[in-house]
């Protein structure tokens, strides 16, 4: 049965892909083409004739125009779309199943056989559609010069692409490119050094001819050919033995030909066919929503007997929705502990999260609102930790003046506010108090202390919306008992969705650096009904020492990408559990396992990155899971604050809830599941 295909774009590659599909009607069935500038009556001439590939109409027998948005090629009707945003196209409405190089295969082969030490390559590339026919104005690069009579040095992204598919070659591959005035076919000049100093050029050729993909991906040329002779070839890596050189022990110059249009398109089809078959197999394996690699013991059926967690609801009458602050002097505790790098705020998410509560209170015309927060962990009044830098951010977000109170919780501040009472009456004046942690009594809280008394004197209504620190037994958090804000309300509601499963299947994804930090949470979630855990990242290091027997509902990510340390080149590690860690990003098998588990779950809770995301090499796995979760619109996804939430900044989706509290969220969940005391910041509001 042929694959139903939609082609997005009918430029050079789209055209080549289309022609190759038409040549195999038993394999591919083109249902739709999205080409914004192509009219139905232009399809025939565009596909039948080509300046580079002379195929004498090739696979096209006849083309008929059915309507302005439909053509019939070889008797098969094809819909024509014209939308620049392919994600908005109704591919499914036309029955589409799926939509749609030289250096990589060569380096993979050489590295596996002889161990590459370093590579430098130059791509001698045929002209592309971005080249100019005559000189134009462009200050950024040299591509504004005419391609007709120039060889044009150009950058290439091939080295970065190589790392993505062959991470073990990270830091070993460098390259550049030169555009030349040829219509098609390119040549790679590759200088490679290998660890096997006894290897010869003939050894490389022999390894290629013996490879299972010889004839599909690899090919040899022993003739005195030139670029035009490789036009319309399908293998992307053709080693020209007569042009290549053996330059001494372990050093080679490899000359590789490829048709940058036709062979690239052929490989696109190979990959697409493979993806289609793999996806179909996965769907068959997932029938009944059971992972293909899951043992019967770890299925959800056996997890239903665990005890349902304690309800952790809040008193609705103490919500800001019910508490009136009109005409009052409000003191509001928030969590504005934003990430800062060299004086620059990297993410103001926590400040923005407080806006609904602040604006709701301002709409009731209070006399004033004193915003209370902390920054960092200062020892005393350390001006490096002043919160004054937040003033312009808060002013901008609120669209009103905000006055800074530099003396913090003090008689001086109280006197200043008293002097402003007449002016502030009913005005909704906003103040920002200096870092509350400048006071030792904040973190070493004692009821009835002098600091506590002064704090209460700042206003007559003390509210809290600082979920990120409700697990702290700190003065300003515990003494805020007049009402809770919308953020706390939303956070507790989101956690309720996680805890009150009501038969829903829950998947916890746990990552991070240290198993000791997450062990209590893993213990906790393992006791929830209908819940499974995927554990990855640095948590797999030391797993056996902390969990001699892996719980039945825990799936471990065994493989990884990593090295002895972050300075060393990355490599694939097939089993970090047996070989003692070193993994800095989730491996391909772990990724497949995790995606299978996500597909089964109804609610997904993720806390802790699966790799060292500060290093671009090890950010890939976490970034891929972000994209996959964003696409799960039929599920509920809860992200547990910290670095994990930072991955979603700018990618918000209605089904994804980003928590502002990592430690607070975990502490609250543990208090409910393990039936412990309510966290300090919620004790006054708990039912």
UniProtKB/TrEMBL annotation:
Pfam families documented for this protein: Gp_dh_C, PGK
UniProt key word ATP-binding: yes
Gene Ontology cellular component terms for the protein in this record: cytosol
Biological process according to GO: gluconeogenesis; glycolytic process
InterPro entries (UniProt xref): GlycerAld_3-P_DH_cat, GlycerAld_3-P_DH_NAD(P)-bd, NAD(P)-bd_dom_sf, Phosphoglycerate_kinase, Phosphoglycerate_kinase_N, Phosphoglycerate_kinase_sf
Subunit details: Monomer.
Reaction equation(s) it catalyzes: (2R)-3-phosphoglycerate + ATP = (2R)-3-phospho-glyceroyl phosphate + ADP
Family, per entry: Belongs to the phosphoglycerate kinase family.
Cofactor(s) of this protein: Mg(2+)
The protein's annotated pathway: Carbohydrate degradation; glycolysis; pyruvate from D-glyceraldehyde 3-phosphate: step 2/5
UniProt-recorded name of the protein: Phosphoglycerate kinase
Domain of life of the organism encoding this protein: Eukaryota
Enzyme Commission code: 2.7.2.3
Domain Glyceraldehyde 3-phosphate dehydrogenase NAD(P) binding: 3-112
SMART domains: Gp_dh_N
GO MF: ADP binding; ATP binding; NAD binding; oxidoreductase activity, acting on the aldehyde or oxo group of donors, NAD or NADP as acceptor; phosphoglycerate kinase activity
Transmembrane segments: none
Keywords: ATP-binding, Kinase, Magnesium, Nucleotide-binding, Transferase
